[in-house]
Design a protein that fits this description.
With about 350 residues, the protein is of the alpha/beta class. The protein folds into three domains: about 90 residues, MurE/MurF, N-terminal domain (Udp-n-acetylmuramoylalanyl-d-glutamate--2,6- Diaminopimelate Ligase, Chain: A, domain 1); about 200 residues, Hexapeptide repeat proteins (UDP N-Acetylglucosamine Acyltransferase, domain 1, 3 Solenoid), CATH 2.160.10.10; about 30 residues. Helix content is about 15%, strand content about 30%. The protein has four helices and 38 strands. The strands form six sheets. Strands 8-11-14-17-20-25-28-31-34-37 form a ten-stranded parallel sheet, with no helix packed on it. A ten-stranded parallel sheet has the order 10-13-16-19-24-27-30-33-36-38, with no helix packed on it. Strands 9-12-15-18-23-26-29-32-35 form a nine-stranded parallel sheet, with no helix packed on it. A hairpin with a 2-residue loop joins strand 21 and strand 22. The longest helix is centred in the last third of the chain and has 17 residues. About 35% of the residues are buried.
Amino acid sequence: MSLIRLADLAQQLDAELHGDGSVAISGIASMQSAQSGQITFLSNSRYREQLAECQASAVVLTQDDLPWCRSAALVVKNPYLTFARMAQLLDTTPKPADGIAASAVIDASARLGKNVAVGANAVIESGAELGDNVIIGPGCFVGKKARIGAGTRLWANVTIYHEVQLGCDCLVQSGTVIGADGFGYANDRGNWIKIPQLGSVVIGDRVEIGACTTIDRGALDNTLIGNGVIIDNQCQIAHNVVIGDNTAVAGGVIMAGSLKIGRYCMIGGASVINGHMEICDKVTVTGMGMVMRPITEPGVYSSGIPLQPNKTWRKTAALVMNIDDMSKRLKAVERKVGKD
């Protein structure tokens, strides 16, 4: 494990150093588990009293929390953001692949940039283009005429269908499928007739996609994912969905076809969003939201009934089922009062 002097870490993070800068830092840990040689961070002042028992060699915190710190410290304005940058500097995650594995199958017509790595049993089909420093993990499939931008990494067993385009510096976690057919069928007297999905998927730069997520190709036009978008694990992005730049999508979200989501949105986990409509920029949908209509104003939106004891929930459900009848009775009372 590599070591870094606290003073050097402070310089790279643009932090104000307090204490011994010669302390060697080997890694990051939580305040509760940190030991000597590790660094931690305090992002919420409500937990500042825990600093008294913290065993870390250094703590990242704000100026307001510094008086409670008994170790060396790096003072910053935003400890959580600094933690993210510090984690990148001290990251020990291995590469998905290194070099070209002997068992990789790469078509002669595929074009590979400089310093490309392809893991064991990966398949790169004809006409595919991989930019400089692309890493393809073991067992991946890159289809015909697919294009993957410079610096993009695919972890093991990612499937990239034909003619899909990924931008630069993207990260795709294991098991994700990009460019599978959208759910398109016509009904002929009870029989489902498949509609070939003739569009593709175009993904921008700096996009990160979690494990086992599916992004379907478009029916005619392309499914579009903007720059800087982050998508969590096990999400379903249907055909012809458009997601604007820097939008975040948490785990388990389902998006129906031809949905358009704006920029800088945040979609909470397990939310379900109807298709053929638009959500404007800067919308937050809280977890388990059910979005059935367009959203035209920025803001925070929620739906659903929070967890209740079963007996209470049964009463709530009974009331909900009787809302229509209650509404009719209320209108009748209002008409009667109006006549009086």
